[in-house]
């Protein structure tokens, strides 16, 4: 590739620079270890300590940045790097990922159908893990807000959940406070320590910051649940409602939101509120239904009384 006129100048400079790195063999060992055990390293199943010096990172980083930014879309690189793999450009990779993730897999709040609202994020940042610059498993198509300076930027942690390998909604949960209209996210397993994959995902992606000022969506979901239950109640045509009717109604909505995760924004939040409603609000809903049952019975009694009075006149 160095002899190719298109790359000859800059590529030659970067290759000469990286060849002078004293720890280049160690860098290759790290790449091999990460590429074969990436998901296990992130989950904490495989323990690893990164001992590359700042000098080494500064020596190898320009090369890997150049490869990612200038060579990744060229077949000539892949013929050398992985000749048996299917050649895929970054734009094609984005399209492939968007088939399953139409919204940001980090926050679930931003629609990523338009390329202007998303970019390619190195999950373990290029600044610390330059040897993973062209490792597809480390590249996530995320919204520009999550991948920006105010949220993730170059922050990282190990162990940590990865949105392509772990179901975020199965490992974290929402906590709703109606008094101050706040939304918090925490690991489902409350016994986990602050360095768990779940806790680190919440911290690195600043999930609690992302969900500030979103109570309107929570209120909308609650209104939808109440309206749906009321509609089903009114359609019951005099049959007395029982707790199972509320449980089923909320469960159906939850399944709909679960199916829409990755497809429609705020689905994780709305599904989380269904879980909360089932635990915290169901009793209040049953009080409402019991009250409505009493009102309905009173109306029936009043109607029967009017009919009786008319018949006796």
How would you describe what is shown here?
By secondary structure, this protein is mainly α. The protein has 11 helices and 4 strands, in the order αααααββαββααααα. The strands form 2 sheets. Strands 1-2 form a two-stranded antiparallel sheet. The radius of gyration is 28 Å and the shape is elongated. The mean pLDDT is 85.
Gross morphology: elongated
Radius of gyration: 28 Å
- The helix tally amounts to 11
Order of strands across the widest beta sheet? 1-2
Termini, distance in Å? 105 Å
Helix-strand sequence: HHHHHEEHEEHHHHH
Q: Into which percent range does the helicity of residues fall?
A: 40-55%
Q: Give the strand content.
A: 5-15%
Report the mean per-residue pLDDT as an integer: 85
Q: State the secondary-structure class.
A: mainly alpha
Find the count of extended strands (DSSP E, 2+ residues). 4
Give a quick account of the main beta sheet: strands, pairing sense, barrel closure: 2 strands, antiparallel
Q: What ranges have pLDDT less than 50 throughout 5 or more consecutive residues? A: none
């Amino acid at each position: 590739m160095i002899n190719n006129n298109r790359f000859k100048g800059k590529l030659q400079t970067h290759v000469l620079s990286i060849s002078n790195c004293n720890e280049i063999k160690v860098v290759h060992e790290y790449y091999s270890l990460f590429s074969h055990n990436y998901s296990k390293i992130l989950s904490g199943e495989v323990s690893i300590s990164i001992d590359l010096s700042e000098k080494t990172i500064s020596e190898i980083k320009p090369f890997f940045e150049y490869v990612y930014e200038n060579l990744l879309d060229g077949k000539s690189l892949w013929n050398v790097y992985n000749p048996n793999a299917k050649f895929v450009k970054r734009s094609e990779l984005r399209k492939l990922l968007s088939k399953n993730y139409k919204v940001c897999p980090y926050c679930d709040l931003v629609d990523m159908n338009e390329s202007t609202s998303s970019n390619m994020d190195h999950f373990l940042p290029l600044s610390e893990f330059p040897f993973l610059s062209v490792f597809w498993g480390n590249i996530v198509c995320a919204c520009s807000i999550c991948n920006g300076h105010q949220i993730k930027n170059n922050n990282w942690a190990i162990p940590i959940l990865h949105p392509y390998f772990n179901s975020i909604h199965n490992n974290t949960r929402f906590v709703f406070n109606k008094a101050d209209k706040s939304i918090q996210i925490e690991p489902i397993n409350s016994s986990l320590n602050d360095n768990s994959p779940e806790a680190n995902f919440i911290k690195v992606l600043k999930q609690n910051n992302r969900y500030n000022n979103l109570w309107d969506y929570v209120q909308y979901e609650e209104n939808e649940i109440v309206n749906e239950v009321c509609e089903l109640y009114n359609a019951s045509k005099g049959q007395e409602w029982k707790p199972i009717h509320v449980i089923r109604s909320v469960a159906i909505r939850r399944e709909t939101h679960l199916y829409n995760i990755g497809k429609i924004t705020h689905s994780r939040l709305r599904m989380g509120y269904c879980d909360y409603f089932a635990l915290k609000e169901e009793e209040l809903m049953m009080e409402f239904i019991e009250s409505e049952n009493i009102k309905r019975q009173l109306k029936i009694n009043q109607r029967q009384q009017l009919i009786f009075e008319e018949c006796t006149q």
